[in-house]
Amino acid sequence: MEKLQRQLAQIRNLLDVTFFRVLLFLIIGFILYVAMYSNVKPEKLNLNLFSVSTEAIRSPVTVSDQENTEKKREAAESQVKDVYVLKKEINENRVDLVTSIFDSAADVVKEAEAEVVPPEDSPENENTPVIEPPTVEEKVTMLKERLTEDVAKDVSDTTFTALVSSSASQLSIAKDLTVTAINNVMSNRIPADEVENGKKRVEEELKFTNLENGLRNAVIELGRYAVMQNEFFDVNATQELRQQAREGVEPVKILQGQIIVEENQLINPEIYRQLELVGLLDNENSLLPFLGLFLVIGLMLLAVYFYFNDLKVRRETKQNYLLLFSIIFILSIGILKGISYINIEYSEIGYVYPVAMGAMLLKIMIDERIAFIWTVIVALCASIIFNEGITSSLNMNVGIYILCSGIAGILFLNKKNQRSKILQAGLFISLINLIVIFALVFMQNAHYNALDYTFYISAALISGITSAVLTIGFLPFFEAGFGILSTMRLIELSNPNHPLLRKILTEASGTYHHSVMVANLSESACEAIGANGLLARVGCYYHDIGKTNRPQFFIENQMNIENPHDRLPPQTSKNIIIAHATDGAEILRKHKMPKEIVDIAEQHHGTTLLKFFYHKAKESGLDVEEKDYRYPGPKAQTKETAIVGIADSVEAAVRSMNSPTPDQIEGLVRNIIADRLQDGQLNECDLTLKELEIVANTFCETLKGIFHSRIEYPEMTKQKVKQA
């Protein structure tokens, strides 16, 4: 184990160099790429046109089939009939035209009748010249002059002759008959190819009227002349309907998982085109899947890089965590890939993967944030590695399952990091695994048999319990190899049956009780500022272990005995007192105690001055320097160590007071903190003035609770009187 620790320490030292950190990330990326390469590598199909497929082939992706979509749109467009509109204004215009012809003819007839010779017995007849009435030809000319040139040309003179030769009453009857017939016919649609039929219908309707032959023929000609096309093709409306028909066609898609070729089916040109469309014919030279895998791995490593870059711990600790994460991650990917090679008929073999192992190890030894990041990354990797047998590049069921399983382990261990809780966490994870699996199965609405359900239940239990067992097995190895001081390790060290704690209790009982009091003060103060209260408490238990070498030289152990320092020179007393810090560190190192505990024992006095013996030496007339009466240090490097040092001085000072009041306690606490600040003992840790104020208030509250006023009972009073 020591050899392994030395090797790991050498690797950690290399990680201080940027080149080796980058190299570590490249190694992790390469391992990920190799692990997932075969899962994204496109499948090669040796298929030829008009060959017979030996297996059913499904589409690996969902793509739009533009060619078939266009065919469907053209078919929908061809189904749209041309749009024709009925123009009613044409009917009105033709009726008005025929009416105007009849009215004009009536006017001509009326004018002709007005030009008559006066009666023979009229006095005016003697001197009035005889006026001949206009001839038929003149009437026809008069009528044409009243009409347009087109009408005069299109209508025959025979018709005009018949009109002007009729009486006004006959023309009125003929007009009504003609207009009625025209309205009857043109109220219906008359396309271009039905105009002649419309003319015939008008002719048939007017043929059997009671008009004289000449006028009847004229009416028929005018009716035929009036009938014309009133239904016309609407280009804009037709185009709009066709566009709507095209837009109404849903795009044709080849869905992911859709069977393109059945087994033993002939590959015709259409099937061959679809195979080419989904990319199953040109996969040999396709680099896109590998580029996608490269980008996914890049994102994973980027997330890990940002986490460790923002991690607020010492550089040595950060490199330690990075190396630990890398080993757990590579180990997990190796297990993940190994499980994927298990050849059984179930594509969900990934359900047996003990994902919570890595999540719980990282949660216990580092923190839950990196555990969450690790869980997300592994879930994504698993969804790619276990994609065999499905048409998608990602097995979302396995990915969701692993994500939920890892998160369950992290959440269960929150503030429950005892070793006994890990097995309980495994059972809890198994329960969550079962719930997630059945949730996924039920949502698919598929039918499973008893064997399938047996597999799912077994996989869930194996994953959860194996995660717990592997966590318990790997945890001591990683803690020892990396010197990780986990919460679980701290709880174990706080056990009063620990050999060193029993040594303090039996050999220096006063020191033991002093350590417990300091632990109470330190833990409450650390938790108040967000530091590690448990580390401070356990460190306090061991911080004075060096006093067990000479317990009687320390005042808390001098019960009913003379103080030996009264007989010793100040220099000797100083050496004995100072030695307890270095002796304690040596004892702890000898017993392989965590470095953080050793540091608290070695640094809790920093380089403070032994004022009592220094002034005693000065009073004795000795030529001494202040530095000779200071602890060797080093000064406190962490918040926990600094708080333990302050709490140690505070507890000793308050214990020496006789019935201290709250004001006296507060004044003493603030004086000790101010003295530490002025002496520079807090210069090398990251405690802020605001945090020191919180620490002072916490100390005062705790001490006031311990040294509160007590009621003086009568028995106590009588005893005092007797003693007096």
TrEMBL record:
One MF term in GO for this entry? hydrolase activity
Matches recorded under Pfam families: 7TM-7TMR_HD, 7TMR-HDED, HD
Transmembrane stretches, start-end: 20-38, 287-308, 320-344, 371-390, 396-413, 425-443, 455-478
Quote the InterPro entries the UniProt record gives.
Answer: HD/PDEase_dom, HD_domain, HDIG_dom, Metal-dep_PHydrolase_7TM_extra, Metal-dep_PHydrolase_7TM_intra, PgpH_phosphodiesterase
UniProt keyword Hydrolase, yes or no: yes
Record's keyword terms, sorted: Hydrolase, Membrane, Transmembrane, Transmembrane helix
What domain of life?
Bacteria
Query: What Gene3D superfamilies has UniProt attached to this entry?
Result: Hypothetical protein af1432
Q: Which residues form the HD domain?
A: 511-653
For this entry, the protein name equals HD family phosphohydrolase
